[in-house]
Amino acid sequence: MMTTLTPKRLTLTDISISIGNGLTALHTMPRVSVSYAMVFVVFGMILLTAVGAFGVSPMALPFAGGFMLVGPILLAGYFELARLQERGQRPDLGDAFRAFGRAPAGLWMLAVLCAFLFLIWITDAGVLYSFTIGGTHLSYDLDWLPHQGSDVLAFELWGALMGSVLAYMIFTISAFSVPLIYEGRAGLVQGVSASARTVLGNFLVCLVWGIVLGSVIVLSILLLPVLLFTLPVMSYASFALYRRAFPPQPQ
Description:
Layout: H1 12-28, H2 30-53, H3 60-74, H4 76-86, H5 93-101, H6 105-132, H7 150-174, H8 177-182, H9 188-201, H10 203-222, H11 227-245
Helix pairs in contact: 1-11, 2-11, 3-6, 3-7, 3-10, 4-5, 6-7, 7-9, 9-10, 10-11
């Protein structure tokens, strides 16, 4: 029987402590952490290569930002690694992938919602792209953004504004519900409700955390090798912040 979930008050100090915990976790589990991140790096490399090949390089930022819409579900593997490390075990890469096999149905339902919002976001970004930039061929280079005209900058600005709304919606309902549901401490409705209450009840702290998390991950996707290290750190930090909001239940 699931108990009432009452989040603890969070402070900005909790963010710094959680990031420190993330760095410690990466230092403790470097090989498995980086190996799991490699999956996302390879996928990102394929995506950015395709974006450049089709000459729609400004879409790189919307796709990178879109990761924040589906990322909370995909990071369940890191949450499992963190759980096992808490217990003093030595997890391997298989544990990260097996996390999806043991995921409750509620987590998959949340994943479908996140995927749906991701499709909405990419579709809207594509429509905005066609109106602001059109058919101009723009290959992908590391320094493409500073050398583009006002049409590209306008697309990125308006795209960022639209994306931030969807990202905040996903962050509100998933930031704490994913680990709660994954650990079996809540069902879908109870987990989403608890996550929303935590984010809205700690609005400033969670806003800062969301900005830090989103900025680090999006920039790291654009500089892919960096993602090998920042993705594990921020994932473990997310789990650590969840632990500070919802401490483990006494056995």
